[in-house]
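User: Please predict the structure of the protein below. I'd like the answer in structure-token form so I can feed it into my own downstream comparison script.

Assistant: Understood. Taking the following sequence of 335 residues as input:
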Amino acid sequence: METPLCTPHNIQICEVTCDSFRIGWDMTPEDTARATHFFIDLSRKESRDPNRFKHRDVPTKLVAKAVPLPMAVRGHWFLSPRTEYCVAVQTAIRQADGDYQVSEWSQVVEFCTGDYAMEHLQQLLDKASGSTGRLLKFSVFYRNQHPDYFENVRSECGGLMRPSLKDNSGSHGSPINGKLSGVFLSCNTEFDTGLPPKDSPYGSLRFQVPAGSLLDANTSLYFADFYCMYTAYHYVVLVLAPGGSDGDNFCRGRLPKLDLSSNPFLTCIAPEAPGEEPLFCHASDVILEVLYTEPLRLETGTVEQISGHHQLMSLTTANAKKDPSCKVCNISVGR
């Protein structure tokens, strides 16, 4: 009769990324010499507020040949970014008849996967670049909100639109979600007029500020996300941060930086002659969401009533979840 295998203990998780991790544990020298396989039981931690847009996870048991520990576990088909998982391990000896002699399951250990790394964001950027269309001129950044919002800015904030924390809309693995604060602005224009749209899903009042007030040669521009919400149109999230600011420091090393004068999303071309204005352009076939990382004073622009409707609530993106089945905006890592 074979000596029973000892229960694995002191489970350790390390080198965690958005779709991989390494796992190790303590084994006796005898078990290390005898074990032929490892069984890993991996499942998503139960959540009180599950993401109803994601496919339901089922416990995933992985079978691997015994290798030196810690061993790598990777696979975008069952690991998602920023997600809590539970894992337990079992050691085994494969016998001549094909059955396994197994140890008891180890204790369950919890861990959380990470954000998209720069390589994943570059993949997302490359996908987004294929959906942008031609560049159109624009002259203002704008922000639509309800009258109560602007009244609160005037009465409670001294006329200052303060940055707020980015919500969890878009790709689950975007490094700015829940970590970077800013004021969201738009710059898309209507194809036939070159002006901001008459309608808005966010409110009936529009703050407008000249593009050159926020975007110049000293501004850093970063790519942060590309997603859709089960619709035909796609969103690109960009971060606009004054050079050397806290927002710029946060994005550097986490997000791909874009060349202001040459990128497919948002450009600023310096004037060719004295007295001329810079040329600002935006992508025509995606909806740009621009997160400006600094406070904005109302007095730097104007607040006016829009001429169209503002009940298009289906277009709002607050906490919107990305369509995990879209082949246009998903990459080969967790959603």
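That's the full token string. DSSP finds five helices and 22 strands in the chain.
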